[in-house]
TrEMBL record:
A molecular function GO annotation: peptidase activity
Protein name as it appears in the record: Alpha/beta fold hydrolase
InterPro entries to which the protein is assigned, alphabetical: AB_hydrolase_1, AB_hydrolase_fold, AB_hydrolase_sf, Pept_S33_TAP-like_C, Peptidase_S33
All copies of domain AB hydrolase-1, residue ranges: 92-245
Residue ranges occupied by any Peptidase S33 tripeptidyl aminopeptidase-like C-terminal domain in the UniProt entry: 550-626
Membership in a protein family: Belongs to the peptidase S33 family.
Keyword Transmembrane helix (UniProt): no
Record-level GO BP terms: proteolysis
Keywords: Hydrolase
Signal peptide: none
Length: 642
């Protein structure tokens, strides 16, 4: 956050002027086929966002079935993040989020940060796909959510997909409402994308998909390519690969890259000359008795996949220590593993640590200059964080839906009351609060909530706040209840939406027999223990669904539209080799493999951001991927091996 950005944000906050580009959206959008309504954006927005000026949110009504006018509509939540340019490129970037069942609008700051590097030139469009995030109105099981709120908020990961568990009951409630779940699929979502861009007034656009969003991007190429200028697919789920049968393949390939990089490194190869066999030995030892322990807890073969998953999620020197970890595990030891997982090897940002690591060649004067500069950089970070908090507060205070409204004051007061309640009383309050989700705004219901759950000493003050609320405040209270519930139950609802889409369109393309056949070919068989444990429950849960396979959906996509395919060698959720494979049917496709990048490559390096940005500027030109060479890992070699 630069001083110029802070000043520009303050001017925008204090000015009454609105963003002219948003005027048409406030009037219902650009396409009468897809009515658009404006809503307050979910909070927090982020320190540099000003609602109505840098960002605007709402819902677009898309057909439930794009093949017929019958069947009603589905309201999809969207947010438009305006480019910082005064002369932006006319073609924005729309984010196709992962999952299926992830979300984008529900967490605007996270996604604004993810794509901030593109906002110098382009608008960014976020939307929650049908059934996902806060676009879940038509498939939300409100009764089950309220009745079992705690189970949704704190799901038992090992039982979440039990057929008689909360999600099974959620499915039964959703089906009982008459919703046609067969329309919740990737093909309909691809046509939603074109409808959204029409409603927002973007005839030409670019798409950026991550994880499941890459599968949606491939279907976009095939089903609704109109106006699509280019596509970036990052961490690729191929439509022609059985995604769940192959769940262990990414981790197996990622572990293979550790071995291959080590063998290509002279010092690593000398220190760990038979690393592949060492990993096999570590897997065997983890399966033996007595079990090894880590921080007092027994560990088994599932640690192999857990360890690779931990590597996938960390942008730090994690790979460097894996050869030593596996060498020790094979010998029945866990000391390096314990230090690695605790973050003991994470680089320290303190001036002393940075100078110790990089300042060996400096003289006294230059060392002092460097130390002072590092200290000033730390102070600047602190000032930036303080400015961010102040800007966010001012933004909410000045917004129509901001912190000075009666609704927000009531929310703060209720939150304060909740912190004083015992567990039983708090659960009762959460149960009744969750009942507001999906209901029409009603002031009397809010009064009943306060009268029922607020202690007598606080009751008059809170009832007074309810009485002072405008109709807009009452509606805002219900919107906040939805966002609160969405945030608290995100993991459960993601599992439910994933199953709605996966179970209907990916089965029987995926089968237990198919999983077993692929697992039999793993380079590192020990990877299967953890993957099988986490994957098999989905196969059982999917038996509850009717299957709706679509002819041709699982065939490889061909298209002349320019595509950049990005994969990372640490990715344990989608195959590291998928980029190279997917472009075989794309004559204008380019594949780039990023060393030391996990899932969502774009998060792991400036190199990935620069390549993606360069591609979006000139999609028909060859990308310059030279920077990937500098990303290859270096390895820890113990002193006795040096």
């Amino acid at each position: 956050m630069s001083p110029d950005q802070i000043i520009a944000t303050l001017i925008a906050l204090m000015s009454a002027a609105t963003e002219p580009a948003f005027d048409a959206l406030k009037d219902g959008g650009h396409d009468a086929r897809y009515p658009l309504t404006i809503e307050a954006c979910p909070r927090p927005l982020g320190p540099l966002e000003v609602e109505g000026k840098t960002v605007i949110c709402g819902r677009i009504a898309v057909p439930a079935d794009h093949d017929t006018a019958e069947g009603g509509t589905i309201p999809l939540a969207f947010a438009v993040l305006k480019s910082r340019s005064t002369a932006p490129a006319p073609d924005p970037v729309i984010y196709l989020h992962g999952g299926p069942g992830g979300f984008a609008v529900q967490k605007i700051p996270m996604n604004a940060s993810l794509f901030d590097f593109l906002r110098d030139r382009r608008d960014i469009v976020l939307f929650d796909q049908r059934g996902a995030g806060i676009s879940d109105r038509t498939v939300a099981c409100y009764g089950e959510l309220a009745g079992n709120f705690v189970q949704f908020a704190r799901p038992d990961e090992h039982r979440m997909l039990d057929t008689d568990g909360p999600l099974g009951k959620c499915l039964a409630e959703t089906v009982a409402t008459g919703i046609d779940l067969s329309l919740y699929n990737t093909t309909q979502s691809a046509r939603d994308v074109r409808a959204i861009m029409d409603a927002l007034g973007y005839p030409a656009y670019n798409a950026f998909g991550i994880s499941y969003g890459t599968k949606l991007g491939q279907e976009l190429l095939r089903t609704a390519p109109e106006g699509l200028r280019s596509l970036v697919i990052d961490s690729i789920s191929r439509v022609d690969s059985p995604a769940y049968d192959t769940n262990g393949v990414p981790g197996d390939q990622a572990l293979g890259w550790v071995v291959d990089y080590c063998m290509a490194d002279t010092a690593c190869a000398a220190a760990y000359p038979d690393l592949e066999e060492t990993i096999h030995a570590a897997g065997r030892r983890l399966a033996e008795e007595p079990k090894l322990t880590l921080s007092g807890q027994e560990i088994d073969q599932t640690m192999v996949s857990d360890l690779m998953d931990a590597s996938n999620g960390r942008a730090m020197p994690f790979t460097a220590y894996l050869p030593q970890v596996f060498t020790e595990l094979a010998a029945g030891r866990t000391e390096t593993l314990a230090r690695l997982l605790s973050g003991a090897f994470n680089p320290s940002p303190t001036p002393e640590a940075i100078l110790a690591a990089h300042g060996a060649g400096l003289g006294d004067l230059d060392r002092t200059i460097a130390e002072v500069a590092l200290m000033q950089a730390g102070q600047m970070r602190g000032a930036e964080a303080a400015a961010a908090r102040l800007l966010a507060t001012l933004s909410d205070d000045l917004a129509a839906s901001g912190a000075l409204t009666s609704e927000a004051l009531l929310d703060a007061a209720l939150s304060g009351v909740a912190r004083t309640l015992d567990t039983e009383a708090l659960l009762a309050l959460l149960h009744d609060y969750a009942l507001f989700v999906g209901q029409a705004p009603d002031r009397a219901a809010i009064e009943t909530l306060v009268a029922t759950h607020v202690p007598d000493v606080e009751k008059p003050r809170l009832l007074g706040l309810v009485a002072s609320m405008s109709d807009d405040d009452v509606a805002a209270f219900y919107r906040r209840a939805r966002i609160d519930a969405a945030n608290l139950t995100a993991q459960s609802r993601m599992g439910f939406t994933l199953s709605i889409i996966a179970c209907q369109e990916d089965f029987p393309f995926n089968t237990r027999a198919g999983y077993d056949a692929i697992a039999a070919g793993y380079r590192f068989p020990s990877i299967d223990a953890g993957v099988r444990k986490s994957t098999m429950p989905l196969y059982g849960f999917c038996e509850l669904f009717e299957k709706h396979p679509r002819p041709g959906f699982h065939g490889a996509v061909t298209s002349d539209i320019p595509v950049l395919a990005m994969s990372g060698t640490k990715d344990t959720q989608t195959n590291p080799d998928a980029a190279e494979l997917v472009v075989r049917g794309l004559p204008n496709g380019q594949a780039v493999l990023f060393p030391e990048a996990g899932h969502a490559v774009i998060q792991f390096s400036q190199c990935a951001k620069d390549i993606a940005e360069g591609f979006l500027e000139t999609p028909d030109a060859p990308v310059n991927a030279a920077c990937t060479a500098a990303l290859k890992p270096s390895f820890y070699v113990p002193p006795q091996a040096q």
